[in-house]
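Changelog entry: the Altronate hydrolase record was regenerated in this release. Current contents:
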Amino acid sequence: MSDAIRIHAADNVATALADLAADGAVAVGSQRLTISEAIGRGHKLALVPIARGTSVIKYGFPIGVATAEIAAGAHVHGHNLATALTGSDDYVYAPPLAVPPLASSAHQFMGYARADGRVGTRNEIWILPTVGCVGNLAARVARIAGVRHAGRLDGIHAFKHPFGCSQLGDDLGHTRGLVAALAQHPNAGGVLIVGLGCESNQLTALLDTIPEGRRGHIRTLSAQAVEDDEAASLALVDELVEACADTRRTPAPLSALTLGVKCGGSDGLSGLTANPLVGRMADAVAAAEGKVILTEIPEIFGAEQLLLDRAVSRDVFDRTAQLVQDFKAYFTRNGEPVSENPSPGNIAGGITTLEEKSLGAVQKGGQVPLVDVQLYGGEATLPGLTLLEAPGNDAVSSTALTAAGATVILFTTGRGTPLGFPAPTLKIASNSELAARKSGWIDFDAGMVIGDGFDMASDALLDLIIATASGKATRAEANEERDIAIWKSGVTL
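Regenerated C-alpha cells:
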C-alpha cells in the first residue's frame, strides 16, 4: 500500500496518507522516495526536484510557486511554497461542453410534502427574532413549547442572532433577507417571527419580502405591543403546532432533495477523500434532477475557472465571474489580500495556499453543470448546481445554505467542529483518526475511501443521506447544536 498518493499524473507533489518518519523510504504508487524530514499526514512531499520560481502542481493545477529549491522527498509547505494569487483575473468563456448524462438514482426518502410542491426533511416550528433584543424571549418560548408539545413534531427551535437594529443599507438588507428566507424553509411547518417594535428590521417590511403564497404557516408578534409577550408568543406557537403536528412523512424522489455542500476545518486529505466523495453525492442528486448549492466564494479563488467551464450559458458564466470579482474587490477594498487564507487549522493539516484549498473545495460540486448564481439570501430554484454568495465562515455560509433552501447539508472536515445549523447537517471526516476520536461530532468517515474505495463509500454515504432526510438525527441535532449566523458587512450605528 502507498504511503502517499499522487492525485494527478501531472502532479510534482504527493500527499502523505499517514505520519511519515524522517530518513525513511516511502512508496508513492510504484515510486519509492527517501524523505529527509518527518512529514505529517495530509502534508505534501516533492516527487521530483522542484526549482525555485517554478509551479508546484497538485490536482493537475498549480497551487503556488516554489520559493526555494526543493529536493525530491522534501516536505513542501509554507517554508518553500507561496501563493501566486492576485486581486484580479481574466476568465475565458467557452461554450459548455457536452457532459455525459450521470446515472440517475431511483432512491427515495420519506419527507414532508408542502403546499408549494417542495419537500421538507423535518417538520419543525421555527421561532425567528427580527432583532437581537428579543432573542432570549424566542429561546425561552422554544424551550417551554418544546416541553409542552414533546413528541408531536420533530422539534421547536429558536434561532437567535445579534442583529436587526442600528444597521443601514445592504447590511440591514442582509439581516432582513436572511430571516425572511429562513421563514420560508420547507423544514419549518410553522414559523413565529418575533419583533421588538422599534428596531430597524421592522416586521411589516420583512413580511413584504415574503410572497403571499408562502405566508400561511407564519405568525408574527411585536413584543412591545402586548402586555405578556411570553404568553402571547406561546399561544401563537400552540396554534402553529395544532396546524402542522398531524403532517406525516410520505415517499419523495431524490429530485425533491436540496443538498447544501460545505467544508470547514479542512486538511490535506479533504480534497482526496471527503470533498470528492461529497461531489459524488452532488452528482447523484443532480442526476435525479435535484438541487445542489455550493457557496464559500473566497474558497474558490484560484479554482473558479473549473466552475466557470461548467456554466450552462454565457449569462451564468458572466454572473459567476462578476460574483467572484466582486468578492475579491470586497477583500481589497478592506485592505486585505485575496489570498488571506488558509486558516491556522488548515495549515496545520497540510494545506499551504488558497489555490490548494480551493482546488480541493470545489470538488464538492462534483461534475454538476452550473445552472444559476444567487446573491446572499437568495433561493436555489433550478435543478443542478447553484453558486451562492456567502463568505467562507462556517456558521455564516451554512446559514446561507439553509436560507437558500438546503434541506440536508453535507459538511466535510479534517479538523472537526461541533457546529450545527437549522437544516440537518452531516459531518463528514476526511480521515479515520478524526472520525474515531470525535465520534460525538462526526456522522461519516470518508477516510474509508483510502482502503475500501469510492464506490463502497458512496453507497454508504448515500444511504446515510437518505436516512437523514427521512428523519434520522444527525450528531449535531442529537447534541442540540442548532444555530444561525448572519453576514455582517456594513456600518453599525
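The two ends are 60 Å apart (CA to CA).
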